[in-house]
Amino acid sequence: MNFHPWSIAAPSRWLGPMSQEILVIGATGKTGRRVVRTLEESGVEVRPVSRSSAIRFDWSDESTWKPALHGVTAAYVIAPSDPAAAAPFVELAQAEGVRRLVALSGRGLDETPEQLFQGMAATERALHASDLSWTVLRANNFNQNFSEEIWESEVRAGRLSLPVDDTPEPFVDVQDIAEVAAVVLTSDGEHDGQTYNLTGPEAITFAAALQKISPTIELVKLTPAEYRETLLSYGVSEEETAELNGMFEAMRDGLLATPTDDVSRLLGRPATSFDTYVANTWR
Question: Is pTM, for the whole model, over 0.90?
């Protein structure tokens, strides 16, 4: 992407690079590493953490939470898979003097059965119950799912098998998510208590998306039962299998199909199109 660090929309009350250190959880992941880069290119001091970082962070090891949180003013949070971790983490963040939490979540969470995506739901509840400044970023499927992990190996092999139909999806670019996160993390007050739905500028079907990448890629439309068996054969847990099938059900029901303008409003520029993603990634 043609990204310049100062293309981030300037918040009305910029905290200033010398007045903050921002924690980024999951700093090696799809969104986390881009949030780190975007903030650093804007002159912001960043504390990137993961299970392998110098300052370790592991959702399953509560002893790593306090060192990661100590001394930071804001944090970008990827929700834990264990919902029981959410409230204690938010409480500790508040006790450590963190002022702002920005959490990545999933679009359509309110319409998702409560037994699915419990970590995201618990994180949102914990934020609502806290006295912290918080913002939730609910995102659609990422453009980069086609080219980084998730579906990459199948796409490159020329055949993607998913439980989808012809309902369109407004895929969102991960760099857009990172830039939105940077804006919110470095703004003072105007995004507090807000939930933003982050999408691309237009909705396209999975078949159309694959054709844009390469006309030789085949889309195989699985039934939910077939998808379940496929995931289980790959060693995916029953819980994650149910969550993924629940996500695709919401997509087939059209709950995620309508684009929003949240990215363009927050960044002051159009959201990245799927065509642009393809041109930058697959050409």
Answer: yes
